[in-house]
Amino acid sequence: MMTHPPADPGALSPAEARALFRGGLVRPTSGFSRGFAQANLLAVPEDCAFDFLLFAQRNPKSCPVLGVLESGQLESELLAGGDIRTDVPLYRVYRDGALTEETPDVRPHWREDLVAFLIGCSFTFESALVDNGIAVAHIEQGVNVPMYRTALPAERAGRFSGPLVVSMRPIAADRVADAVRITSRYPAVHGAPVHIGDPAALGIADLMTPDFGTPVDVAPGTIPVFWACGVTPQAAVMESKPPLAIAHAPGHMLVTDARDLEYQVP
Amino acid sequence: MMTHPPADPGALSPAEARALFRGGLVRPTSGFSRGFAQANLLAVPEDCAFDFLLFAQRNPKSCPVLGVLESGQLESELLAGGDIRTDVPLYRVYRDGALTEETPDVRPHWREDLVAFLIGCSFTFESALVDNGIAVAHIEQGVNVPMYRTALPAERAGRFSGPLVVSMRPIAADRVADAVRITSRYPAVHGAPVHIGDPAALGIADLMTPDFGTPVDVAPGTIPVFWACGVTPQAAVMESKPPLAIAHAPGHMLVTDARDLEYQVP
């Protein structure tokens, strides 16, 4: 079982990356399989699946659905030859809304009736920002992006409700417009920012104490820019308490076979 | 009860247009409430709703979901103050996949457990084509767009499967690229064409015998351009035979309170 990190994770094919994680490697996936989209995972029992898919439809910026594995389905064209129960480096298991386990192999907890939702991840638009010469602080600092529960509710659907969760990137004031323009072209992976410049209006008291991820400095000359975040589904799970939910651990995403550029619109 | 057509249907607010249809006016909605999006309707029983929403998620070009009314819900922000059972000018009722009634008031057939899906309509991108000086033949001829069942299957989801249905517009050869560029900006209402120039590759033997709508000439110097069509859900209903489904009649759409421009991406 190979569990040591590869020399150049960006050069791995998505199938190679998934095989490493299936083999036991536990590692944040930032930088793996350059050019390929990564996905948030949320699996819920079939009798919650309509409500969750509707929650995603009503919250397209925070929960853009890239693919759905129906109950009993363990792979799809997004993870060809893979297994959704082993191919994410680290999983979180929620029972009645409470985090009960964190594990690299979720097979002991999986159920036949789970429906797995693969949700777009900001890594795709971050690559586009970097390719356009826009500095992204948490990437430069090698840490996870800071994320915040806001005072704004997500749109409710059936049993699912919860706060909108946002990620924050400080952007140089003269590149904020460019950052909007560039991320607008990726509506399938959170798209344009939901808010620019005023944390208080989102109910965020202190940018240095994020609810998830790692704080980053808002350097002089930069403006805090907020995007809808794929952790919103996990916040809804915590609030809505389905009997079982299985998610990725923050930063430990599914590496998919879809190219980032497939999600670009004009 | 006012049932005569208004002098300038384009000037009506969406609420005024819906009130006319609720009052008994039966008329195709092309040209009503200029600048506002119209929607395809498909309502199915709650126990089919997950499968249909998944079908839509897997077929985003033919079935872009603008909104969902949960069981028991008769209005939403897309039809504020309205009633989904009366505000479409003409409905079609399908039982076990067979069209059994066409009626302007579907209340006698409605059930408490129906979930109603509002699906984007090509009128939105047609307005953008016309605004950009691209002639659209069926609009100039005052007829419904020609639509064809293709030999290509839509992506299956649960009990729903069926052919991809496309609409065809002949576009001047020197504007085909513009038509692609313009409609690409509206992914929520069918987006870019799925095919350009070769009906046979879609399994269409004769453009002059469409499966739905009205044939239009492909004039010299124009190229047939094919877009995914919102009739795809009705074709899936015919093939998949849910016990009950309620849809709009072709061309008789729901006039919504959403502006066309809300669906434009950069």
TrEMBL record, chains A, B:
Keyword list, A-Z: Lyase
Cross-referenced Pfam families: D-Glu_cyclase
Family stated for the protein in its record: Belongs to the D-glutamate cyclase family.
Protein's recorded name: Putative hydro-lyase GCM10022261_20790
InterPro entries the UniProt entry points to: D-Glu_cyclase, Putative_hydro-lyase, UPF0317
Keyword Lyase found: yes
Annotated organism of origin: Brevibacterium daeguense
Source organism superkingdom: Bacteria
EC numbers: 4.2.1.-
PANTHER family associated with the record: D-GLUTAMATE CYCLASE, MITOCHONDRIAL
